[in-house]
Amino acid sequence: xxxxxxxxxxxxxxxxxxxxxxxxxxxxxxxxxxxxxxxxxxxxxxxxxxxxxxxxxxxxxxxxxxxxxxxxxxxxxxxxxxxxxxxxxxxxxxxxxxxxxxxxxxxxxxxxxxxxxxxxxxxxxxxxxxxxxxxxxxxxxxxxxxxxxxxxxxxxxxxxxxxxxxxxxxxxxxxxxxxxxxxxxxxxxxxxxxxxxxxxxxxxxxxxxxxxxxxxxxxxxxxxxxxxxxxxxxxxxxxxxxxxxxxxxxxxxxxxxxxxxxxxxxxxxxxxxxxxxxxx
Length: 280
Known about the structure:
Low-confidence stretches: 106-114, 249-257
InterPro entries: Rossmann-like_a/b/a_fold (IPR014729), Universal_stress_UspA (IPR006015), UspA (IPR006016)
Pfam family, one: Usp
Protein name: Nucleotide-binding protein, UspA family
CATH class of the largest domain: Alpha Beta
Number of domains: 2
Family: Belongs to the universal stress protein A family.
Radius of gyration: 19 Å
Mean pLDDT: 84
Domain UspA: 32-132, 150-277
Shape: globular
CATH superfamily of the largest domain: HUPs
């Protein structure tokens, strides 16, 4: 299986690539080939007098390539110019990537996690599942928030077709996942008897049985309230390493539109997020 790994050659991404545990998790997911891509601004001229931007970029990419190769991955490198999310998703489509990996850093002054415009736009236009890997700053240095990427999964479902597509990711993570929490959030204005309400517990139970057959310890929850807030509240309770959910919607131009719930959770979660786009 093949992954496109987006890098800005920063110390934060170095931290993720230097984590043997993270890389082993990717191997258990099935990734054995990685396309390492960095996108430079078209406004930067590598040939400016006294500038060694091209050399610095090449050396930084080689350093990360060597680390990935030392862990057994086949690595292809790409230095391209343009709009980052377009070039990253374009490469993913070109090589038929099974996964896109992008790091997310930083917090707002209100201590609410945000995703930068690049990651947000990758998520909105992705043609492959996107793993948003959280990188935090502790004691003045970057650190991977959850090294065991798929050990504890929080799966949020509204029982839509795309949520079912997201559930299929457990087939890929089964060798790395030890625990799973399956969550459905009922809208506060829904009434008993409406579709998807009365049988929510039974549907989750059936999903849980499938995971338990694969040795994954699984619990189920049904909450009521605003979906994103309840998902984030459960995240605080169960402390997953990754939140798994589906994005929803498409335009006529095949541009995927994140639903408000998936975008909010992707932006604010403390855990990694594995976001599965709708079928093309």
